[in-house]
């Protein structure tokens, strides 16, 4: 990062330049273990000092960057602005006083973007730009004058005909396209990349004691290839490529690694978790496999991105999941909160499923940012309420 930029960021945050240089050195994380994916095995040992977030706790919360209170309008960019997570991120950023430059593939498609302008302050402080992940160089001018870039855009398709073209290229090349623009920019201080728990967890067997995954845990490419889980592979490859590129170019990159994200949709189309809930409750899904997923509330994922931007010491990866649930646990929650007739759901519950290997997610590093994750039942209830309001249940 250039000196002029360091000085400006230090002035904005009200911290000394020396402190800021130390923070930048840490934040760039060039010597950190999580840049180089270790062997894809899970460990039940305690996380490292860095994974426990001790270093972040060493820095008092009062020194968090408080851009808006410093009287400055800070511009940030959010890619994939029409998406489920990005819509929440934009909502929270606008509420916190940021000016948001959001990218979408088609700004004229009001069916995908109208909800953004009805957010509080959307009309005053939100701009939309056209950008496709595979359009080389298209982010270059968009990130100009932005201090933070939140890169959430990535195809989220579980079913594909040509995984290389539909998932892997946009995820990996698209991420590098965004990062290249950030590397050239004189304003970008930090890039926040949305990764996925699919870049952390791949093979867990029933034989082992419940393992814990940490920021140093990486999933296994060959496992996802063998399982033909192309979405998981695209997220793993994109995060790996991003970390290597950021290291090479000296970009301050922080990755947020959420589990399955649940909650109310702000955008008109349904997110992955709401689709799953709807399919179970309507009987569209006739077969349910028992799989354990780490779940998290969409509001918490958006908040985690913002805190990781605003916290000078934030660096590396942050696992972001409140609870690991297998399918019977999800069904129990649905039975408890869905008040309408549920013969289909009951039929799932009556058929005992074979047990699924579960795991624990270490969130000590995330908590060191000052976040308190909400119970996942709340997010699932919100998702059900939203489906009912839209007449889908
Ligand atoms: N939902 C989850 O449970 C979950 C869990 C872990 C991680 N994540 C990650 O979180 C991020 C957001 O996911 P989401 O659930 O909010 O999904 P989403 O609603 O489908 O949002 C994804 C966004 O990416 C955009 N996009 C896809 N391909 C693109 C391309 N070639 N060029 C430009 N934009 C493109 C989409 O634009 P269009 O609207 O034009 O298609 C959409 O706005 C993704 O990186 C995803 O991998 C999601």
UniProtKB/TrEMBL annotation:
Keyword Transmembrane helix in annotation: no
Highest taxon of source: Eukaryota
Record-level Gene Ontology MF annotations: oxidoreductase activity, acting on the CH-OH group of donors, NAD or NADP as acceptor
Organism: Adiantum capillus-veneris (Maidenhair fern)
Domain NAD-dependent epimerase/dehydratase residues, every copy: 76-313
Protein name (record): NAD-dependent epimerase/dehydratase domain-containing protein
Signal peptide: none
Lineage, opening ranks: Eukaryota, Viridiplantae, Streptophyta, Embryophyta, Tracheophyta
InterPro entries the UniProt entry points to: Epimerase_deHydtase, NAD(P)-bd_dom_sf, NAD(P)_dehydrat-like
Keywords linked to the UniProt accession: Oxidoreductase
């Amino acid at each position: 990062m250039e000196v002029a930029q360091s000085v400006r960021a230090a002035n904005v945050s009200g911290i000394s330049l020396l402190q800021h240089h130390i923070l930048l050195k840490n934040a760039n994380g060039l010597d950190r273990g999580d840049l180089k994916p270790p062997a894809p095995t899970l460990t039940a040992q305690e996380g490292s000092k860095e994974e426990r977030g001790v270093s972040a706790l060493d820095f008092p919360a009062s020194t968090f960057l408080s851009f808006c209170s410093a009287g400055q309008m800070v511009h940030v960019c959010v890619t994939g602005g029409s998406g489920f997570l990005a819509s929440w991120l934009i909502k929270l950023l606008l509420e916190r006083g940021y000016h948001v430059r959001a990218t979408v593939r088609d700004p004229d498609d009001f069916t995908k973007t109208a909800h953004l302008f009805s957010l509080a302050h959307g009309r005053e402080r939100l701009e939309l730009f056209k950008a496709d992940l595979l359009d080389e160089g298209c982010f270059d001018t968009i990130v100009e004058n932005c201090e933070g870039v939140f890169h959430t855009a990535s195809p989220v398709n579980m079913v594909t005909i040509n995984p290389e073209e539909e998932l892997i290229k946009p995820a990996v090349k698209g991420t590098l396209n965004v990062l290249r623009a950030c590397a050239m920019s004189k304003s970008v201080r930090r890039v926040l990349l949305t990764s996925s728990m699919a870049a952390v967890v791949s093979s867990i067997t029933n034989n082992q004691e419940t393992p814990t995954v940490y920021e140093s845990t990486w999933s296994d490419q060959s496992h996802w290839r063998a399982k033909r889980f192309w979405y998981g592979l695209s997220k793993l490859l994109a995060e790996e490529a991003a970390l290597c590129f950021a290291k090479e170019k000296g970009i301050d990159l922080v990755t947020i690694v959420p589990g399955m994200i649940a909650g109310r949709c702000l955008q008109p189309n349904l997110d992955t978790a709401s689709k799953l809930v709807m399919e179970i409750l309507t009987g569209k899904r006739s077969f349910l496999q028992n799989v354990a997923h780490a779940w998290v509330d969409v509001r918490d994922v958006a908040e985690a991105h913002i805190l990781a931007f605003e916290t000078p010491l934030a660096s590396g990866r942050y696992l972001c999941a409140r609870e690991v649930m297998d399918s019977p646990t999800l069904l129990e929650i649905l039975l408890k909160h869905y008040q309408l007739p549920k013969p289909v759901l009951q039929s799932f519950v009556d058929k005992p499923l074979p047990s699924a290997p579960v795991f624990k997610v270490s969130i000590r590093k995330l908590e060191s940012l000052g976040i308190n994750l909400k119970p996942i039942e709340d997010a699932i209830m919100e998702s059900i309420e939203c489906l009912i309001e839209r007449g889908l249940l």
